[in-house]
Every structure is written in C-alpha cells, then in structure tokens.
Write a structure and sequence with these properties.
Elements lengths: L1 H6 L69 E6 L5 E4 L1 H6 L10 E4 L6 H12 L5 E7 L5 H6 L5 E2 L25 H25 L1 E2 L2 E2 L4 H15 L13 H9 L3 H6 L5 H7 L1 H12 L20 E5 L8 H18 L8 E6 L2 H5 L3 H11 L10 E8 L3 H4 L7 H9 L5 E4 L4 H11 L3 H8 L8 E6 L2 E7 L3 H6 L4 H6 L1
Parallel strand pairs: 3-10, 3-11, 4-8, 4-9, 5-8, 9-10
Antiparallel strand pairs: 1-2, 1-13, 6-7, 11-12, 12-13
Helix pairs in contact: 5-6, 5-11, 5-13, 6-7, 7-10, 11-13, 13-15, 16-17
Length: 497
C-alpha cells in the first residue's frame, strides 16, 4: 500500500516514537537486611531495648495529649480553657452537685495560690459570670478593698466598717427569723429560737475564745454557755415568753453579766449574786475587753445599714482596720460572718448567693471556737429547709494557713484539716515546690500535679489545677481586657513605683 501510494506522490502518515519514561528519583533507599556495608551502618546482634509503662489517663498526657478526666457539662460560668482537652472550661458548683456524673457533693470552693498569681481575678470572674444565672455576691469582709471598683461598676456603693465611720453592724441581730414573732405557733417559735440562740452562742464563744491569758485562749465551757444562753433569753424577752422579741447587743450582754438580776442568778443555779460574779469573772472580763476595745464603734450598737439583697453584689470594707492588727480584723470577720449568716437563715426559694471569704486565716487564728464558727458556715451551703443556698468561696495562700490555727494535734488543727472535706471544689494556683508538697500531703495530688502547680502554673497568671472531687483539670482563666482593668489589684504598687 505504501509503494502504491508513493507512485502517485503520497506517503502514509508515520506514528511518532514514544519518548522513554524518565525514572523518578527514589525517595527511600532500602538498606540490606544486615545493614549498609560501611562504617557505623552495619548489622547489630541485639535489637534496641523496649520499655513498657503502665499508667492512668491522668498520667498519660505527659507522653500524649490524652484527656485526663471526662469533660464537664458546658453550664455555669465560662472560666477559660481546659488545657488538656483544648475546649472551654465551665464552673457550675450547684449544677455539679445535682449531677450524678460529676464527683461533687457540695458547692463550696477553696482556692490556694500565692499572692500575685491571679487568685483575685479568678474569684471576681466567677462571681461576675454567674450573675446572669441569678447568683448574687456577698463579700462579708473586703480586707484589702479589692471589690470596691467592681461594686461601683455594678452600681452598688460598698459599706465601710471602721472606727469613726457611721456604719454599725450588730452581730446579735435576729435577722428575718425574728419577724412576726407574735403570730407564729409555739412550735415554730421554739424552732427559730433554737437557731437564733445557737448562732449567738457560736459567735460569743468565738469572741471570748479569741481573748488570751498569756499564750492560752480564754476557756468557754458548758458553764459559760449556760450563763450566756440564759442572759440572752432574759435580754430578748424569750425567757419571759414575750410575744415580740427585743433585739439586744453585746454591750448589753456584758452589762447584764456585770449587774446580774435575781432571775439570771436563779436561772444559772448559783447560790448568790456574789458566787455568780466570782464564777463568771473571766467571761465578763473577756467581753469587757472586747466591748471597750475591738468592738467599740464597730459592732457595739444596733445595725444602721440597710442591705439591698436584690443588688447583684454587696461588700463590707474592712481595710481601715489594718492598723489595729490581724486579731482585730479576724474578730471583725467573725462578727460579719455571724451577722451575714443570720440574715441568710430564711431565704426565698431559688435565692442563690456566692459568699466570698478573703484572708480566712485571720479569723481562724483566733482559736478553736472561731474555727468551729467557720466550719458551721461551710455546712450551710445547701441552704436551710430547702430554701436558698450559698457557695462559700474561700481564698487562702497556702495549706499552712489551715495548719497554723493551733498545735499539730490540737482540736483547732484537726477541725481545720477537716474543712477541706467540706469543699469538693479546690483551685490550686501557682505555688513554690515546698508549698506544692504540703498540698500533696493534704490532698494526695501526686508528682504530676505537684509539677503542674509549681511549674506550669507559675508561668502565667490565672493558671490553676482545678480539682472537682477526684477529677483534675488543667485550666487557664481567660479575662477580657475590660475585666483585667476592673479586677486589677496592684494600684498601691503602681502608686509607689
């Protein structure tokens, strides 16, 4: 066919030859089984040693970013970022208590962190971010005036408790339990009276026990308790069966003990007024020292402040008491806590409040009775008779704040250690290694948690290990720029610089 077509001047089209395929460069060069035949690349008689480790999911994140604990439900205040899961971390104490899948049985919070590590910022962020959910904040003692700017930003003027100021708080205020006394049935009157007098006895025991004879605290035993109970019953009219209880004060209690009536002597079963005066001299002198000293001009008269419990926050400033010493501040905190607890004894259903307690160690160093009073406050977090409920948010610097309330084996020290069991939520912020070891001895953190507290948490403010029951979360609190400005607590340092 090609020859035929060529006679007529035609050629068949030719098929172009295919270009040879170029080989791609080899990415990997496989060595022989016995290794490459050059120095240092030959065959080894023994394989590399392999080590097996067995660990739990909270230890595995050291080697691989596992989630150390099950994620918490996204309810409550959004605090920041859970560093182990990468998701948001939410804090909802009462919500956790109501859930079976979260190991928390009470909503109280203990926060341990060294000064300047973001402890106040975390506290204020939690209080502010819980307000949209109906929570209100009560600061029973703002020792450093850290909450004044927050109060004013929310349209609330804080109260100032200090010598020379007009505000007075009566720690023996009956509160709402005394309202409408005459119209109550006898059983309800007896129930309320038991609550009122028990609170007053805890307060007076703490006040008397804060006084010292040398190195020992003034004793307050059953005899002193009986005297105070009968005296308060006479002063309020409860002993006489009055239809309306009369409010009393600590100076009036002291005056009655100095000038006892025959009714009081007889009720306390003393043979004579002389015997009464002799037996109660120590109690009377301790109260007299308080009335003429620390309580004077502060807690020695009827309450003249009206607290708006509907406001988002209420705060009582105690910073001007610093010049009187830590003991005076501790006594003021004890009185404020008792007064605040009295006003919360009858709360409306659903009235939930966050009670912030700063510088707790100043109150606890007053003695065993003061520690017992603080213990009683923590036990009322679930509310009373199904109404109300408070989240006690307690700030401490280090665990030795609890251990320094008394000798190692003393009753006060044992009660202080047990306080940790009344808070299922613990926030462990930045600490030095020695303090981290103290926390481990009290909470059983383990070496990895110790390293987080003394290492990772020290590198930035707001970092903390959140312990919810037996579950731990590595959390970085995140603040908005406006929050950083509002929560700032270094104004005094800036002014000095």
């Amino acid at each position: 066919m090609a020859a035929l077509l060529s006679d007529f001047g035609h050629d068949l089209p030719t098929i172009p030859a295919l270009a040879p395929e170029a080989k791609e460069p080899r990415l990997f060069r496989y060595a022989p089984r016995r290794g490459a035949s050059r120095r240092g690349r030959g065959w080894a008689a023994a394989s590399a040693p392999a080590m097996a480790w067995r660990m739990t999911s909270d230890q595995a994140p050291v080697f691989w970013p596992f989630v150390s604990a099950p994620a918490l439900p996204p309810t409550g205040a959004q605090m920041g970022v859970d560093q182990l899961s990468g998701g948001s971390f939410y804090c909802d104490p009462f919500g956790w208590v109501l859930r079976d899948d979260v190991p928390a049985t009470n909503p109280n919070i203990f926060q341990f962190a060294k000064p300047g590590s973001g402890k106040s910022g975390t506290t204020k962020a939690f209080c502010t971010r819980m307000m949209p959910f109906g929570y209100r904040t009560l600061v029973t003692g703002d020792v450093k005036d850290e909450y004044e700017s927050l109060c004013r930003a929310l349209g609330v003027e804080p109260f100032v408790i200090a010598p020379g100021f007009w505000a007075r708080v009566n720690p023996l205020d009956m509160g709402p339990l005394g309202d409408g006394w005459g119209s109550l049935p006898a059983e309800e009157q007896q129930r309320r009276a038991t609550i009122i007098f028990k609170r007053w006895l805890v307060l007076v025991r703490g006040l008397v026990g804060s006084m010292k004879i040398g190195q020992d605290h003034v004793p307050f035993g059953p005899d002193e308790s009986d005297v105070v109970r009968n005296a308060l019953g006479i002063l309020t009219g409860y002993a006489a069966g009055n239809t309306q209880l009369e409010e009393t004060t600590i100076p009036r209690l002291w005056d009655l003990l100095r000038n006892p009536t025959e009714e009081l002597v007889r009720a306390c079963e003393y043979a004579s007024t002389r015997q009464f005066l002799d037996e109660t001299r120590l109690l009377r002198n301790a109260l007299g020292e308080l009335v003429t000293g620390t309580l004077a001009g502060l807690f020695d008269d009827f309450t003249n402040v009206e607290v708006d419990w509907r406001a988002p926050i209420q705060s009582f400033s105690l910073s001007r008491l610093d010049g009187l010493g830590d003991e005076a501040v501790g006594i003021a905190l004890l009185c404020m806590n008792s007064w605040g607890r009295g006003l919360r004894e009858i709360a409306e259903p659903g009235d939930l409040r966050i009670v912030v307690r700063d510088e707790v160690w100043k109150q606890m160093r007053l003695g065993t009775a003061a520690v017992a009073s603080f213990d009683a406050d923590l036990r009322l977090s679930r509310g009373m008779a199904g109404k109300g409920g408070d989240i006690q948010f307690c700030n401490l610097h280090k665990p030795s704040d609890l251990l320094s309330v008394g000798d190692a084996d003393s009753q006060a020290a044992m009660i202080a250690k047990d306080l940790l069991e009344l808070a299922d939520i613990k926030i462990l912020g930045a600490q030095k290694p020695r303090v981290a070891r103290e926390l481990d001895s009290m909470l059983g953190l383990g070496p990895i948690a110790q390293d987080l507290v003394s290492g990772w948490a020290m590198q930035d403010k707001g970092r903390a290990l959140w312990c919810i029951g037996d579950a731990t979360y590595k959390v970085q609190t995140v603040l908005h720029p406006l929050e950083k400005k509002l929560y700032y607590t270094n104004e005094a340092i800036d002014a000095a610089a």
